Amino acid sequence: MEKSKQRHVIHLPKNINIGLLCYLLILGWFIFSFMIIPNLEILKTVFLSGDGFSGELIHKIFSSERAVNGIKNSFVLAISLTVTTTIVGILEILFLDYFKIKGRKFLTLCYMIPLVFGGIMLSNGYLFTYGTRGFVTNFFTKIIPGFPVNWFEGYGAVLFLMTFACTTNYMIFFRNAFKSIDFQTIEAAKGLGATNFVVLRKVVFPTLKPILLTCTILLFQTGLMAMSAPLIVGGRKFETISPLILTFTQRPASRALAAVLSLFLGIFQLILLFVIQRNEKKGNYLSISKVKTKIEPTAIKKPFQNGLAHCIAYLFALINVLPLLIVVTFSFTNFQTISSRKLSLSSFSLENYQKIVTDSSSYRPFITSVTYSVIAAIIAVILMTFAARIVFKYRNRLTSILELLIHIPWVLPGLMFALGLVLSYSKPKWFMFNQPLTGTLVIMLVAYIVVMLPNTFRFLKASYFSVDQNLEDAAKILGAKPMYSFFKIVLPIILPTVLAMLAINFNGKLGDYDLSVFLYNPAAKPVGVVIRSNTNPEAGVEGIAINFVYSTILMIINSFVFFFVYADGKEKVKSLFRDKRGDTLNERTKL
Fold this sequence. Notes:
CATH architecture of the domain at 62-330: Orthogonal Bundle
Number of helices: 29
Structural class: mainly alpha
Oligomer: single chain
Radius of gyration: 26 Å
Strand order of the largest sheet: 1-2
Number of strands: 2
C-alpha cells in the first residue's frame, strides 16, 4: 500500500539545479499563456453566454446531415489512411533496405518527394495532374472513349493523394530505426529456415514497435485533421470535419458549431494519446539494436515475386514523381500552355521566374516564411528536447501532467487555436507584460511553435529509448555532472532525430496556410497565404503560373534542407572537396 501511494505523489526531481528550475518555469509560463488560455478563451466565447452553458449546439450538430457526414467521413479517412499509408510506407522501406531492387538510388529520390513536396502545394499538383482538366485526364480522354473527366474526386481521390503524401514519417524515423536493426538476428532466423515474411513478422517488426506505434497514431490523427486534400480534391462529395470547421469559423454566427466539431476531434485524439501511453508503460522497447551490423539486402529468389516487387516499387515511384515533374515543367511555360495543357518547345519561357526575382511583392513572402519557419523550428526542438528528457527520465505524476499539457495542440484544431489566440490577446494581459499580441509580428510565430510541439515531443521521446542507460550510469560513477553527460553521451545518440525534427518542422511551416491566414501581419504576408489566394478563380491562369513557380522554389529550399540535415550533405560536400584536393596534390606530385 505504501509503494502504491508513493507512485501518485507529485514531486520534483531530486537535487534539482537552478537551470532546470528556470527551464520548467519558462516552459510552464509558455504552456499556460499560449496553450491553455487560448483554448479556454475560445470555449468560453462560443459556449458560454449570459444564461450560462447551453447544450443546443450539440443537438444542432447531430441534427445537421452535413456535419454528421463530415464526422463519419473523417473517421473513415483516418482508419483507411492508417492502413494504406502503413502498407505503402513499410513496403517502400523494404524495397530500399531489405530486398534487392534494381535502381535503389532512383527509388530513394522518388520516395523522398513527399518530404519536400507536400501540403497545399501537393494537393494543387495532384489536381493539375489528375483533376477534371488535368494533364493525365486529358491524356486518357484521348485514348479511351467515354473516359470520365471527374474520376479524381471524392473519397478515393483523397485517400490516394494522402496515402502517398503521408509516408514522410516512415521514410525518416521508421527507416532510421529499421537500418539500425542487428542483421545477425535476421541471419540467425533465416538459418533456422524462416522465410522473409516470418523474419519480418517475428524479428523485425516487434523490435520497431515504439516507432511503428507512433507513426500509426500520427497517421490516424492526420486523417482526422485532413484539410487541404479534402478541400481541393474531395469537394462536396467527400467533406470532412476540418473543411467544415474552416467554413463555420469564417462565419461569426457559426463559430460555436466549429468549436463543437473541434471538440469531437479533441476527445478522440485524447483517447489515442491514452492508448499510446498505456502501450509504452507495458514495456521498455528499444527501437534499435546495440550491435552495429548493417542490414544487407536480400534477393527475392522466385522470379514471379521478384518481378512483382519491382513493378510495385516503380509504380510507387511513378505516382510520387509524376505530379512533381508536371508542376516543375509547367512552371517554365507561358500562360497559354498552362491553360491548354499542351506542351511544345516554343511554349517554354523564364518569364514566370523573372517576375518572382524582380517583383518585391513576389519574393517577399519567401523571406517572411523562411524567417518564421527557422525561428519556430529551432525554439520548438530546443524546448521539446529537454521536455522529453525530463518526462522520460523522471516518471511520476508531475511529468505525466506535463506530457498531457504538451499534447494540448492535439485537442483542438489549429484553426480554433488561432482564433483563440486572437480573442485572448486582443487586449493586454498581465502575464503578457500588459502587451497585446493580436496583429503583431509575434503572434504567428507563437502559433507555429505551439503546433510543432506535440509531434516533436513524440519522436524525441521515442528516440530516448535508443539511449543505453549503462553509459549514463558509468559517466555518473566517474563524476560527470548530468548536463555534461547529456551533451557528451545522450545528445550525440538522439542527434539524428533532433536534426530530422528541425527539418520536418521547418518544411512543415514553410508553406503553411491554415494558421497563417488568421494570424499574419499584412506587412509580412507568408507564402502559404499567397499560394491560396492565387488558387481563386479571380487570379486566373497567371495565379496558377505563379503558384507553380512558388511550388518549385519551395521544393528546392526543402530539398537543400533535407540534403544538409537528413542526408548528411555537409559531410558529403567536405569529402568532395577533400577528394578534389587529393587529386590535385597527386597530379602535382606526378609532375
